[in-house]
Here is the input.
Amino acid sequence: MVTILNRRQHGFDVRMYPGDHDPPHVHVWKGGRQVKIDLTTMEVISATHRFNSREIRQIVNLLREHESLLASVWQRLQDS
Here is the structure.
């Protein structure tokens, strides 16, 4: 697992796994909770514990702000 954004905003850690399956996605952690977000649609794929709607908006805004970085890292991790 590679941490891409570490507690950048609102305490979220954004992580990816090398060789992970499609669709391109990230695992976002906060306080022991995790949500998986599709980077293409910015929709929740799954969650271990629910994030409230405000937190999901914050996460999506953070991902959109770093969209090109996340796409680049996803590609690099798939090629390794």
